[in-house]
Amino acid sequence: MPAQQRKPHDASTSDIRTSGITRSRIMWERLLRTVRVHVFFGLSGWTLAAGMLALLVAFPLLTIGVSLFDPVSDRWEHLVSTQLSTYISNSVILVLGVGMFTLLVGVSTAWLVSACDFPGRRFFEYALVLPLALPTYLVAITYAGAFGFAGTLYGSVQSTFGNAAAVAIAGNIMSREALIIVMGIVLYPYVYLISRASFMQQSHSVLEVARLLGRSPGSTFLRVSVPLARPAIAAGLSLVLMEVLNDYGAAKYFGVPTFTTGIFRVWSSYDSPDAAVRLAGMLLLLVILIVLFERMQRGHARYDNSVSVFRPGVRYRLRGFRAAAATVFALLVVTVGFFFPVGQLLYWAAGTPAELVDGRFLRMVLNSFGLAAMATVLCVLTAVILVYTARLHRTWLVRTITKVSVMGYAVPGAVIAIGVLLVLSWLDSTLEPLLRKSFGLSIGFLVTGSVLTLLFAYLVRFIAVSFQSIESGFQSVAERMDESARSLGAGGLRTLLRIDLPLIRGPLLAAGLLAFVDILKELPLTLMLRPFNFDTLATRAFELAQDEMPALAAGPALIIVAIGLLPVFLINSYFTRKWHHESAGTETSVENVSERTSPRG
Amino acid sequence: MVGESGSGKSTLLRLIAGFEIPDSGEIHIDGTAVCGARNFVAPEKRGVGMVFQDGALFPHLTVRENIAFGLHRWERRSRNERIDALLELVGLPEYGKRYPHQLSGGQQQRVAIARALAPEPALLLLDEPFSSLDVIIKEQMREETRAILRRSAATSILVTHDIGDSIALADRIAILRDGLLQQIDIPRNVYNLPRNDYVAALFGKTNILKATCADGGFDTAFGFFPFDGVHPQTESFRLAIKPQDIRLSSDLTNNRRARIIRVIYRGSHKEVILVSSQSTQRQHELVAFVDADSHLAEGAEVSVDVDVRDIRVVQDSA
Amino acid sequence: MRTLFIDTILRRILPAVVMMAAFLFPACGDGDTAEVVNVYSHRHYDADRQLLEMFTEETGIRVNVVSAGADQLIKRLEIEGEKSPADLLITVDAGRLYRAKERGLLQPVHSEVLERNVPAHLRDPEGHWYGMTQRGRIIAYARDRVEEEELSTYEALADERWRGRILVRSSENIYNQSLLASIILNRGRDAAETWARGVVANMARSPRGNDTDQLNALIEGAGDVALVNTYYVARLYEDSTAEKRAKAERVGVFFPNQQSSGTHVNISGMGMTKSAGNRENAIRLMEFLTSDRAQQLFAEANHEYPIRPEIPLPRVLAAWGTFRADTLHPTALGEQNWEAVKLFDEVDWR
């Protein structure tokens, strides 16, 4: 009965069958309300801080978006009339292919290790995350290096399966289809990790009900577990798709023209960085579509567990053929995604004069590690401020700003670099005269070309990774927790530090570690923006690979993998740990924060 | 404060606490405007305590730490004394070191009340504090809560959809429907003098009868009811008659006739559903409770009698 | 568990990060007043690093390097404007230097040493940039399947007899663009288009991988001829494993167009930036890089051809003998670059 008599601003979110006049009145009231909320709450400092941070992060992206409105050059027209359709079709095929692949592999392995028992399950729980530590372009190189012409395994294939087979394999190892597999096998852990965490949080009573209603384990999985885990799966998938879109190294090496390789072609071959930025702007539109798609998928359904007491359930014990099939499948995935590429790297490293562990090498390790650590702290801190502010003020203004600021993940690093340089050099040129006037200092660039530039760029590029995880973490903390704390006299900061952060320390850790691994692997931003004489493991490995000497690149590449493994294991042990202790209270029956604008009735 | 879900009672509570901002109007606590046209006092500065439906205890803090949370500005010794006193008050002195998930639902709720009382709030808000408890504990918790609130002497607003809660606990009851206040009064008056049919119907089954004024009483579908009170001035009123106040007799002692269409055995009593003999329309139904051992057959015609004092004239809210 | 979590962050992790920051920052903003020269370089070879170290030893001038793709470095220079710290821009092809000059990012340098060391067709007439090394774009062929007599010119590769036999990398590669630009200049646009169409039709597979991948495919029989740069072949000949060296023996090297325009060469070069704050040091470095020692090292360690004909060649290069190089000026090639790229797109050379 209350549905018919809602307050006007309530109606605006649900029933849009109103006339134009009432609609505009509703918009007006909504705006008024937003203003009021910001006037009242805004001075708390959170909106100010979050707004500045979000703007700072969004600015480089906005400069890219604005380029869409620039006048069109003849080179752009040439691109549209010749190659653009190829870029679009290839990118779409890659997105669909890798999307399907990661969905199948990621979700099925996640379910196997979280709901079933089979030989080696404990091992695979860890091992299945390992590919996360490998940069995609390196995996592409190792496969081409193993099965390509004159590859490590070319001879073996030749002697076992005959020359024709060897030539056929070598001829197709660098193809669009192979690229889908390579990308899929490196990126599926995003889906695996996030959906496994979701499977493990699912209330077993719901699953047991399904079993009692006569559903088989498989059918329970498809009809109950997967639908319940859908937001998590979608979150993982959207990270995967953004990675696919911004990949440059692997696609270029395999000769598959995509949006991103196109951006670089336009930049370098067309000598038209502006057209490249414009192409990146179009890519951003594509990403917005993906994000919208994810939101629509979610719709108005609620996916949170309404049962507040969690109790770990009994696993399905697989036997005989099924157990063997599960083990073989998991082993195959891990081997293709991790052991094989690492094996190839080890083989190369062993066969080449080792680049000895000298001071320069140590310095590189320290640079990589230190930079990644600092950028990670920055990303997590910013993400926490943004998400928390959005939580404090559930208005569309805050929501929109935060949404824009996390788009950077899909944009190729080098394009972000342009935006970052533009913003920072503008900042520098406004700051410099100021400093010169007031202190008589003339110091050239303050931030441009320093480690700060890199940190800022990493923030723009990788905040999405930490944002996703932290946002979902906050969503699992009931708002009543915050409100309890507020009503007990705790301000925003104290509530955040004492209540929210301790409650989401799992997602917080995951956010940091995912960002850390990603930043450790990062290449194009680092290459373009780094200060003088500044090498990281990733840039060094790339330089060697770029010189067409992949064997020499193996050393630094292996170190990246080794350093990357540590956080990967940490993330994993967090996700593996039983939730028993916390989930009793961290609860769970929360509305989706971002969906709500109006007070509850 | 009583209302169905969706009636706006929780919103009102959240407005008082400062978690929502009103579109218009002002909120005053103890004479001070906490939300007016120009000022807005943040929730943490209002000195308002709040107890949520499921307690909302911080799962990562022990019972003591939960209670201590609002006492961060107190010095250590008085803080500890306060916590001990509160644990004593809610009857959980042994449970200070436990975590919330190690407590039963009722215990969690008591800790939640203790936590909210700790900073000595000017006002305590309780949002459906018993709704997540099962029936047996609920009764007990209601009593304990009453005792705790009495002892602490804190001004409290309790929101519930169960009129029983409010009758048992409250000094004054406000009834809310679709965001509009229906009545605010002491429990006795709410029960005995409901202002409109909605409030009347809150206390279990109530017959709401259409009637027109007649000399010395009202005309209804069931006939003429004598009435000695003041006649209502408006047209839109109804008569509210509780089922237990209706007496039926098969002797046909008066001209208020009804036919029994169903008799339902309820253990302590029988529920009889009647329709007017004059009208065959289903909406003119009357419910009466009669003794479990009375013999009334379905289809029988009876006369209806009601004591004049048991007839309430209420506004028609429809 | 418990509230210690935040304390852990505040007490342990943050200080660690701050220390890390303290460690990283001096690396970039070293304020010592020692003589320096700042280089943006697309070259990241070990030979270059050795040379720069030698330079520092000799002169006491420190060399700071950022290496990245030339296009990215040019964009960075452009945005940084007159405050850019860079003194010198080094690229692997003259086309990029031409672009940098067109955008007003370089300034002319006049030095007797440079003008003596670098032949006129390997430097900018106004001195905005100078060549450093050169590489020939040659036809590598499978000795067992192709007779040297069958090969003659780039143009002849469009002939039907090569159907399904040509290996070449993508048109995104500047060496290919530069080659097509030279054909446009030498033969005209229409002839160049016919040639590009012919080559695309003759490709053994759609372009993928790098030059070394083309050579490996050639060795294993996926194609019979490959368009590659000289130093990749030389590197293959000098491979550390005997097995690879034996396989490399199957590859022959042919310098095309000896009877006509000459073999196409790419020039790796350097130019002083407009913003250069260390002009003198930059000029000294440029001169050093064209010196006998530097040129010899480029040839020996990197198998690139020196810009000065009098520098002795290492064994591998010497074995190929001398060849006639196309002397089209890089500026002209740079001007035609866009035409070449358009052509590639039109004939769908990936």
Overall description:
With 601 residues, chain A is mostly helical. Chain A has two domains: 46-67 and 357-586, Orthogonal Bundle (MetI-like fold); 83-301 and 327-347, MetI-like fold, CATH 1.10.3720.10. Helix content of chain A is 75%, strand content 1%. Chain A has helices at 8-14, 20-42, 46-66, 74-82, 84-115, 121-127, 136-147, 154-161, 163-172, 176-201, 204-212, 217-228, 230-246, 249-253, 259-268, 273-298, 320-351, 359-392, 396-405, 413-439, 451-475, 479-487, 492-503, 505-521, 524-529, 537-546, 550-576, 580-586, and strands spanning 116-117, 316-317. Residues 1-18, 300-312 and 578-601 of chain A have low confidence and may be disordered. In chain B, helix 3 (76-89) crosses helix 4 (105-117) and helix 4 (105-117) packs parallel to helix 5. With 318 residues, chain B is an alpha+beta fold. In chain C, strand 1 (36-41), helix 2 and strand 2 (62-67) form a beta-alpha-beta unit. In chain C, helix 6 (174-187) crosses helix 14. The longest helix of chain C is centred in the N-terminal third of the chain and has 21 residues, at 4-24. Chain C folds into two domains: 35-134 and 267-312, Periplasmic binding protein-like II (D-Maltodextrin-Binding Protein, domain 2), CATH 3.40.190; 135-264 and 326-346, D-Maltodextrin-Binding Protein, domain 2. With 350 residues, chain C is an alpha/beta fold. In chain C, strands 1, 2, 3, 4, 5, 6, 7, 8, 9 and 10 form a ten-stranded mixed beta sheet that branches. At the A-C interface, helix 4, helix 9, helix 15, helix 18 and helix 20 of A face helix 1, strand 2, helix 3, helix 8 and helix 14 of C.
The CATH superfamily of the largest domain in chain C is identified as: Periplasmic binding protein-like II
Q: How many structural domains does the protein architecture of chain B include?
A: 2
CATH topology descriptor of the largest domain in chain B: Rossmann fold
| Largest sheet: number of strands, sense, barrel closure of chain B | 5 strands, antiparallel
Count of β-strands of chain B: 18
Q: What shape does the CA trace of chain C take?
A: globular
Q: What string gives the helices and strands of chain B in order?
A: HEEEHHHEHEHEEHHEEEEEEEEEEE
SS field, number of helical segments of chain B: 8
CATH superfamily of the largest domain in chain B: P-loop containing nucleotide triphosphate hydrolases
Q: Judging by the overall fold, what is the CATH architecture of the largest domain in chain B?
A: 3-Layer(aba) Sandwich
Cα distance, first to last residue of chain C?
57 Å
Order of helices and strands of chain C: HEHEHEHEHEEHHHEHHEEHHEHH
Oligomer: heterotrimer
Strand percentage of chain B: 25-35%
Task: Describe the sheet with the most strands of chain C.
Answer: 10 strands, mixed
Instruction: Flag low-confidence runs of chain B.
Output: none
- CA(first)-CA(last) distance of chain B: 21 Å
Rg for CA atoms of chain B: 25 Å
CATH architecture of the largest domain in chain C: 3-Layer(aba) Sandwich
Helix-and-strand structural type of chain B: alpha+beta
